[in-house]
């Protein structure tokens, strides 16, 4: 016998009933996006490798070791998207969306791919909800984006969590900070091999290193906040003021840089208590220079990504499990089955979830199927019911019964 084919390591199937929880999160996000004036954009899963190399930065973990990159049949280098922001910008510029007046507010949902070592909360195909606001550098937009993120997390009943915020400054602040950081790192022994390279090529990335030893060394490192120019400092202060005004609790985290090179000014992350090592459920920030880096005009922007896989681990078990009332029609004999099929369709037309068994099994077998399907109501149809045109509608939770005229069943159930 041929061997069974399995899914690829780090890529998993998400099965029912778990999918109901995912739908609940996505529905809540869509609803929040609607209220905040965001519209959906759908993008390809594959882009030219150059898009990510140019935006995320060649010295980041993502680009240097985590991308699924392959030549297509033509020899062009393509990559399964490791994140969405660069692709959103590519699409915005390519389709001229940047030319519309005002702030361009877009969201997108879908899988991302990174060749990381799989572990709890870390997958090679994972799923994000992405939000991007393009065309404004106003601190109000930063605040709005963070408020929107926190609103989504509240809607899905995320428990204890911490919002970490920092400002990475503009390119000038970053240049001054990088010089100071690099000087500090050069004077220290014992950095990991990667960081010894990064302290020369891209010192900001050292702040993101997972090595305990590097983290220890960094405790004495200079912090970005001390290198912000007056404009960047004022921008950050206004964002924090707005967050406070709307009751959002935040923690300033002076070493938060995030794993991608394109961030400027505001950067933030939400970590959930109880998630272990991979505890960031969402992250984002401003990327004012990215459009130009991708050959476009000046287009200041900010966005965030929610990691759905991780979020699911900490959300309530019963989230989204209430999918409305369900009816099971049990039928005995060919005529009753025929009648039940008509009723089944009539119920479904009313938007009521209805099921029956087509295999002509015993009443006992049908009722145990109703149990397995967790039917809220059952109706048994036999010769007597066909003759009288009436049947008992039984509420499974209580055992209560009421006699109902069959033609009125959809109406009665709709009203329950
Ligand atoms: P990033 O695009 O790296 O800023 O990540 C944004 C969010 O996506 C993180 O906060 C995580 O929740 C999630 N995420 C990133 N990488 C993975 C992964 N390999 N597996 C599961 N979730 C991930």
Explain how this protein is built:
This protein has 416 residues and is α+β, with helices and mostly antiparallel strands. It folds into 2 domains: 18-170 and 229-312, BirA Bifunctional Protein, domain 2 (2-Layer Sandwich), CATH 3.30.930; 326-411, Rossmann fold, CATH 3.40.50. It has 15 helices and 16 strands. It has helices at residues 18-35, 49-56, 61-66, 85-94, 139-155, 171-186, 193-201, 212-218, 230-245, 290-293, 308-314, 334-349, 363-372, 383-388, 409-414, and strands at 39-40, 46-48, 68-71, 77-80, 104-113, 125-134, 161-167, 251-252, 264-272, 280-286, 301-307, 326-331, 353-356, 377-381, 390-395, 401-405. The strands form 3 sheets. It has an 8-stranded mixed β-sheet with strand order 1-5-6-11-10-9-7-8. Strands 13-12-14-15-16 form a 5-stranded mixed β-sheet, with helices on both faces. Strands 2-4-3 form a 3-stranded antiparallel β-sheet. Strand 15 and strand 16 form a beta hairpin. Helix 5 (139-155) runs parallel beside helix 9. The longest helix has 18 residues, at 18-35. The two termini are 52 Å apart. 38% of the residues are buried. The mean pLDDT is 95. Bound molecules: adenosine monophosphate. Adenosine monophosphate is lined by residues 83, 114, 116, 121-123, 126, 128, 258-259, 280-283, 305, 307, 309-310.
């Amino acid at each position: 016998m041929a061997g069974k084919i399995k899914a690829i390591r780090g890529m998993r199937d998400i099965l029912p009933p778990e999918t109901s929880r995912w739908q609940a999160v996505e529905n809540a996000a869509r609803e929040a996006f609607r209220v905040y004036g965001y519209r959906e954009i759908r993008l390809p899963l594959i882009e030219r490798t150059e898009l990510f190399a140019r935006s995320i930065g060649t010295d980041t973990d993502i680009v240097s070791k985590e991308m699924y990159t392959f030549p297509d049949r033509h020899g062009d280098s393509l990559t399964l998207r490791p994140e969405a922001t660069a692709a959103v910008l590519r699409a915005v510029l390519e389709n001229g969306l940047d030319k519309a007046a005002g702030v361009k507010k877009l969201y997108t949902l879908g899988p991302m791919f990174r060749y990381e070592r799989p572990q709890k909360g870390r997958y090679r195909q994972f799923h994000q909800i992405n939000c991007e606001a393009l065309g404004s550098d106003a601190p109000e937009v930063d605040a709005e984006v963070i408020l929107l993120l926190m609103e989504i997390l509240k809607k899905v009943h995320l428990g204890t969590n911490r919002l970490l915020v920092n400002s990475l400054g503009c390119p000038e602040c970053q240049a001054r900070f990088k010089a100071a950081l690099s000087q500090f790192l050069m004077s220290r022994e014992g950095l990991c091999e990667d960081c010894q390279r990064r302290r020369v090529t891209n010192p900001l990335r050292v702040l993101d290193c997972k090595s305990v030893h590097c983290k220890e060394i960094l405790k004495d490192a200079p912090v970005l906040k001390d290198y912000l120019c007056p404009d960047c400092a004022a921008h950050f202060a206004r964002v924090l003021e707005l967050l406070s005004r709307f009751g959002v609790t935040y923690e300033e985290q002076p070493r938060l840089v995030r794993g991608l090179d394109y961030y400027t000014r505001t950067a933030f992350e939400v970590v959930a208590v109880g998630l272990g090592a991979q505890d960031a459920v969402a992250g984002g920030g401003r990327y004012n220079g990215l459009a130009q880096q991708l050959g476009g005009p000046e287009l200041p922007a900010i966005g965030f990504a929610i990691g759905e896989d991780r979020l699911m681990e900490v959300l309530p078990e019963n989230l989204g499990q209430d999918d409305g009332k369900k009816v099971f029609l049990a039928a005995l004999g060919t005529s009753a089955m025929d009648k039940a099929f008509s009723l089944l369709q009539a119920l479904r037309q009313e938007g009521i979830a209805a099921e029956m068994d087509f295999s002509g099994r015993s009443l006992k077998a049908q009722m145990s199927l109703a149990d397995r399907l967790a039917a809220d109501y059952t109706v048994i149809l036999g010769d007597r019911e066909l003759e009288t045109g009436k049947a008992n509608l039984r509420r499974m939770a209580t055992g209560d019964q009421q006699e109902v005229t069959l033609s009125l069943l959809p109406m009665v159930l709709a009203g329950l």
